[in-house]
Amino acid sequence: MEVDYGTVWTDCLEVIKGSVGEENFNTWFKPIVPLKVEGDVLTIQVPSQFFYEWLEDNYVPVLKKALTTVLGPSGRLEYSVIVDSGNTTNPPVAVHYPNGMGGKRQSNGMGDEYSPFQFKALNPLTVNSRLNPAYTFENFVEGDCNRLARSAGVAVAKKPGTTSFNPLMLYGGVGVGKTHLVQAIGNEIRNNMPNKIVLYVDQNDFTTQFLNALQNHKLQEFQNFYLQVDLLILDDVQFLAGREKTQEIFFHIFNQLHQSGKQIIMTSDCPPRDMKGFQERLLSRFKWGLTADLQEPDFETKLAIIHRKMQADGIDIPTEVAEYLAYSVDTNLRDMEGVLNSLIFHATLLKKNIDLELAKEVLKNIIKEIQSDVSVDFIQKTVSEYFKVDLESLKSKIKKREIVIPRQVAMYFCKRYTQLTLALIGENFGGRDHSTVIHALESVEDMMKTDSNFKLSVDELGKKLKLRMN
Ligand code: ADP
Ligand code: MG
Predict the structure, then answer these.
(1) Which residues of 114-130 are buried (b: 16+ CB within 10 A; e: fewer)?
(2) Ligand 1 centroid to residue 175 C-alpha, Å
(3) DSSP 196
(4) φ and ψ at 46, to 5 degrees?
(5) Which of 167, 174, 301, 470 has a CA between 20 and 30 Å from the CA of residue 318?
(6) Does the N-terminal peptide bond of residue 167 adopt cis geometry, omega within 30 degrees of 0?
(7) Residue range 110-126, pLDDT digits in tens
(8) Phi, psi dihedrals of residue 255, rounded to the nearest 5°
(9) Distance of CA 204 from the midpoint of ligand 2 (Å)
């Protein structure tokens, strides 16, 4: 019997309407487009990854009720998330998720049900690659901080296993984009080479699977599975430290894959030479291919990431707000993601305008640890004493070089140690605008890179100011 998915969805909407307020109904349910019904599975299309996550986090009970009413107790829901609506050659990628498991949604968008043991001979079309389709090269912003790693990634994605970048080892601190980049490589290969078996696992998955296999006497299946993979991505390999047995099996898999020309990609929080708790033979293999680092993103890259993300969600963000965020969120990009998601939430759900005030409020709630109270006055006074320049000149518009540099340094510390916006910092230095302040911050950062004496002075000043803060 043909089921009319339009009718099914309309019936669901009736149920939903009774359970959520009108505003929420219009915001979260009206934009949904039903795609198909197969058996008792209804597939709906949602406008963005954020949208999907919001539904999963907030409306699972409501959706479940609607499905049960309309399709019966075994009714299930699958989402098709529009990841890149501008690209018509790539159909929207479906993120499959059974209804009713919202609380267990994982950050990579995959379910829990995955088991490597259910496969004998792997079919590339059905293997769960565990990739999040939202991580692509298109939305990975290129900058000085990641250029080498990114181009190596692009090269590997074009010719997996056949470049000299095997293994490709990417390392860097928290939130610099390692997972995003390696998943982008995986997605690219999966899209362009559908006969290749791509697998993304983080160290934790790998270890758990291995220990399960060991316990259940399924080691052979475990190995068979991994040896059929064409592209193996192992994320956060540093956590294998001290796990002798897991390293052992990984060493074996690594060798087999490498020998048969399969591509291996790994990430770590430090370069192989600094990795502790690893067998030497494994470390030496990590160095066979290319090791590339990802640095903390610079201002320009952060700005581009902010714009890209907001654009993807169709939200206008004023330049001054974007600049404020790019400077203020100096912990890592994951925090930035949190701040942006929260802004998107305010803009879409509460229909607020994104302005500096809102940005500051959001920032304060998300990034707690930074910046306590040290006043602009105190910074200005300390800096003027340190450089032996007159306080009034420091706060004026005088353009003499011996004043300009201390003034820029003072602005730099105002940015780091106060909650003030760029515009407000400018106000405190003779009424300059925010772009002058940005310029000042950049000059100070540049000088610190090129002039070690200058850097020493700034560090010393920083310590003086910090003493006061604690
Ligand atoms: P890591 O694995 O290094 O800790 P992630 O890959 O999880 O970092 O990145 C953290 C967040 O920042 C993710 O949401 C990711 O999409 C985003 N991100 C990181 N680098 C970039 C970039 N260059 N362009 C766009 N988004 C990025
Ligand atoms: Mg990561």
Answers:
(1) eebeebeebebeebbbb
(2) 6
(3) S
(4) -120, 155
(5) 174
(6) yes
(7) 333 333 333 346 788 78
(8) -60, -45
(9) 12
> pLDDT at position 126, please?
82
CA angle 356, 439, 428 (to 5 degrees): 60
Pocket test for ligand 1, best of 132, 267, 334 (most atoms within 8 A of CB): 334
Long-range contacts of 107-112 (CB under 8 A, 24+ apart): 107/132, 108/132, 108/183, 108/200, 109/49, 109/133, 109/134
Q: Which residues pair with 268 in a beta bridge?
A: 171
Contact 414, 420 (CB under 8 A): yes
Question: Are the CB atoms for 406 and 389 separated by under 8 Å?
Answer: yes
185: left (phi over 0), alpha (psi -120 to 50) or beta: alpha
Q: Give me the pLDDT at residue 150, please.
A: 96
In the numeric block, the tokens 């099914």 are attached to 8
Residue-wise pLDDT tens digits, 219-238: 888 988 999 999 999 999 99
User: Residues 6 or more apart from 352 whose CB is under 8 A from it?
Assistant: 346, 358
Nearest ligand, measured from the Cα of 173: 1
> Across all residues in the chain, what is the average pLDDT?
85
Q: How far apart are CA 400 and CA 383, in angstroms?
A: 16
How far is ligand 1, taken at its centre, from the CA of residue 50, in Å? 15
Pairs from 96-102 (Cβ < 8 Å, separation ≥ 24): 97/56, 99/60, 99/63, 99/64, 99/67, 99/75, 100/60, 100/64, 101/60, 102/55, 102/56, 102/57, 102/58, 102/59, 102/60
* Contact (CB, 8 A) for 394 and 380: yes
Domains of the chain plus CATH, in order, are 5-97 (3.30.300.180), 147-293 (3.40.50.300), 299-363 (1.10.8.60), 376-469 (1.10.1750.10)
Looking at residues 160-176, what average pLDDT do you find? 94
Quote the percentage of the chain above a pLDDT of 90. 52
Percent of the chain at pLDDT exceeding 70: 88
Distance in Å, CA 332 to ligand 1 centroid = 9
Smallest CA separation from ligand 1 atom 19, residue:
177
Closest CA to 157 of 178, 183, 139, 175: 183
Cβ atoms 60, 100 nearer than 8 A? yes
**Residues composing the chain:** 470
CA separation for the pair 455, 396 (Å, rounded): 24
